[in-house]
Amino acid sequence: MKTKVEERFSEFFENWMCQLHEYLQHLQRASEDYRAKIGCEHEQELQASVSKVTQHYKDYYTIKWALAHEDVLAFFCPIWISPLENAYSWVTGWKPSAVLKLVNSIRINGILSSSLVELTQEQMRKIEALRVKIRLEEERVEREIERQHVTGWKPSAVLKLVSSIKMNGVFSSSLVELTQEHMRKIEALRVKIRLEEEKVRREMERQQSGCS
Question: In sequence order, what DSSP letters do the residues of the chain get, joined into one string?
Answer without folding.
Answer: ---HHHHHHHHHHHHHHHHHHHHHHHHHHHHHHHHHS--HHHHHHHHHHHHHHHHHHHHHHHHHHHHHTT-GGGGTS-SSS-HHHHHTBSSSSB-HHHHHHHHHHHHHHT-TT-GGGG--HHHHHHHHHHHHHHHHHHHHHHHHHHHHHHTT--HHHHHHHHHHHHHHT-TT-GGGG--HHHHHHHHHHHHHHHHHHHHHHHHHHHHHHHH-
